[in-house]
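Hi R.,

Here's the chain you asked about this morning:
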Amino acid sequence: QVHLVESGGGSVQAGGSLRLSCAASGYTYSSYCMGWFRQAPGKEREGVAAIDSDGSTSYADSVKGRFTISQDNAKNTLYLQMYTLKPEDTAMYYCAADLHCATIVLGPGALDAWGQGTLVTVSS
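And the predicted structure, written out as tokens:
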């Protein structure tokens, strides 16, 4: 059973940085595409970034150039480095695993697994 646990959220001012982490367990980590999506109150799920087993990455247009996704396969850990944060980045951020990266970044559709989320709040 896939188990994903996010950490690293917090409150920052606009222009600040945060790094989110996601510890994965219960499955063969490299067999899935891993990624992040976010959801702000009253809004639909929005894909943020994904990284495939071959290391290829994809990003939502809204975060390109500001966010970087990476993973440490030895530690079964996924990261999201966020720079130049904006108030509109405020949301609950979820780690996700799916056979298809497109499902994570583009949606919609059910994901194979996701964590409990970590809250990111960016103040202006």
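The first helix runs from residue 101 to 105.

Let me know if you need anything else.
M.
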